Amino acid sequence: MLVADEESQSLEMCEMILAKLHFAVAPVNSIAKAVAIIETLRPDVIVAHARDVMPLQRAAWPSGVPFVNVTEDMRDPNSVVEAIRHALRARLVA
After folding, report:
1. Which of the four pLDDT bands, split at 50, 70 and 90, describes residue 93?
2. Cβ atoms 64, 88 nearer than 8 A
3. What pLDDT was estimated at residue 64?
4. What distance in Å separates the CA atoms of residue 67 and residue 86, rounded to the nearest whole number?
5. Which are the contacts of 56, defined by CB distance < 8 A and separation ≥ 6?
6. Which domains can be identified in the chain, with CATH numbers?
7. 68 has which bridge partners?
8. What are the tens digits of pLDDT across the range 2-19?
């Protein structure tokens, strides 16, 4: 999965949590870099702050890759992990 976050502390925390849960994580510290590698990487899920999703969706279109929009309400890491699992399950069903 691609995790795009311009806040280094948040990115490192997300990467660490997801790696401990055995997710393959490609962390990217800028939205521009994430946009540049989406087509090559072809992630199963893209995780980003809700404010950064639009340019990533344009870059990923029409791949159908699901997005997890991290909002301020998702301070608990478990809620982010659950949203990722939900996105992966939904992709498998589609």
Report:
1. confident
2. no
3. 83
4. 11
5. 4, 31, 34, 35, 38, 46, 48, 67
6. 2-93 (3.40.50.2300)
7. 47
8. 999 999 998 998 999 999
Paired tokens of 55: 């340019």
Q: Is there a cis peptide before residue 43, judged by omega within 30 degrees of 0?
A: no
Stated length of the chain: 94
Q: How far is CA 8 from CA 12, 14, 30, 60, 92, in A?
A: 6, 10, 10, 23, 31
Query: Shortest CA distance to 51 belongs to which of 70, 24, 76, 36?
Result: 70
The pLDDT of 52-62, averaged and rounded, is 89
Contact 38, 46 (CB under 8 A): yes
